Amino acid sequence: MPEAPAGQLLRAERLAVHVLVDNVTDIASTTTGGIIGHVANVARGEAWALSGSCLCCANWGLSLGLDIVGLTGDVTRVLFDAGPDMDTLTRNAQLLGYSFEGLDGIVLSHGHWDHAGGLPAACRPGTPLHANEGMFVRRCIRQPGGARIPFRDPPSPGVLAAAGATVELSVDARLIGKRYVYLSGEIPRLTAYERGLPGHQTWDPSTEEWRDDPLIADERWLAVHLRDKGIVVFTACSHAGVINVLTHARRVFDPVPIHAVMGGFHLAGPGVEATIQETVSDMARFGLARIVPGHCTGWRAVGALANAFGERVTPSSVGQTHVF
């Protein structure tokens, strides 16, 4: 049986995922079944005409709106991350007709600016916002020559509470969204080649020094259980490594199969591109029906995944809706 609390996760009949923020925009490529395209999602009303002002903006970051339909027809809505800034999130949500009113939960995957910056725009009075204390720290990237690029701090729990959210901080796995969504605990690091984010550092206030922090232990993933299909895993950045994420999910939900994975696979950049082939090879072990790479996956990895898995790979693009 699946681990607690995963064993109490309710099964869903249908899942629609609205890509509110992603690095890429693509209105021209044909899509396979189960994807509603960007233009179709924004084309509403008789006065509508295709133009730049009616299209969503791509930006470095990720925000996914999950609409989950239960077996009895009830709908649960959960926002997974909020992109890099409030302007991008608000503009895209308005164009897509996506409302932050009545959300059953907001989840921050980890404490990086490109996932947290838009959070205040999504907060509404009483909306639960799930995070852990490890997300709210100062961070930077140390370059090979020694210079540091600072990260903008994520909005603090106090700022999020002032925006209306009910901030719930815990390191533990839990069920959210009326028990239709599983939020993981810390991700075990098992693979030899998934080593986190090279050069990543965290400020230690006790020593007033930067310390190396490549593993980014505050990161979390989400899961939804679809009836007759299995588990859909959402991984926002995969600093832990997407294979470690999938391995963790398989252990948590065993013997329920993993049906699909969607999100950033963290395979772009000089420190991680060398692991693309190992990642693609190991991903074959999970028998995934759908693979939806986005955000920080990078074009080299998307190409390698498409070569290996063909039509099972459906890349994410801002403005799309992926239906599972």
Query: Any low-confidence stretches, pLDDT <50, length ≥5?
Result: none
Question: Could you give a short account of the major beta sheet?
Answer: 14 strands, mixed
Briefly note the structural class of the backbone.
Answer: alpha/beta
Element-level helix/strand string = EEHEEHEHHEEEHEEEEEEEHEHEHE
In percent, how helical is the residue content? 10-25%
CA-based shape = globular
Q: How many DSSP helices?
A: 8
The tally of beta strands, per DSSP, is: 18
CA-based gyration radius = 19 Å
Q: Termini distance? A: 24 Å
> Which percent band covers the strand fraction?
25-35%
Question: Could you tell me the mean pLDDT?
Answer: 97
What does this protein structure show overall?
With 324 residues, the protein is α/β, with parallel strands linked by helices. It contains 8 helices and 18 strands. The strands form 2 sheets. Strands 1, 2, 3, 4, 5, 6, 9, 10, 11, 14, 15, 16, 17 and 18 form a 14-stranded mixed sheet that branches. α7 packs parallel to α8. The longest helix is centred in the C-terminal third of the chain and has 12 residues, at 242-253.
List the helices and strands and how they pair.
Blueprint: E1 11-21, E2 35-36, H1 38-42, E3 63-70, E4 75-80, H2 86-96, E5 105-107, H3 113-116, H4 119-122, E6 128-131, E7 139-142, E8 148-150, H5 157-162, E9 166-169, E10 174-176, E11 181-183, E12 200-204, E13 209-212, E14 221-226, E15 230-235, H6 242-253, E16 258-264, H7 276-283, E17 290-294, H8 299-309, E18 321-323
Parallel strand pairs: 1-14, 4-5, 5-6, 6-9, 15-16, 16-17
Antiparallel strand pairs: 1-3, 1-18, 2-18, 3-4, 7-8, 7-12, 10-11, 11-14, 12-13, 14-15
Helix pairs in contact: 7-8
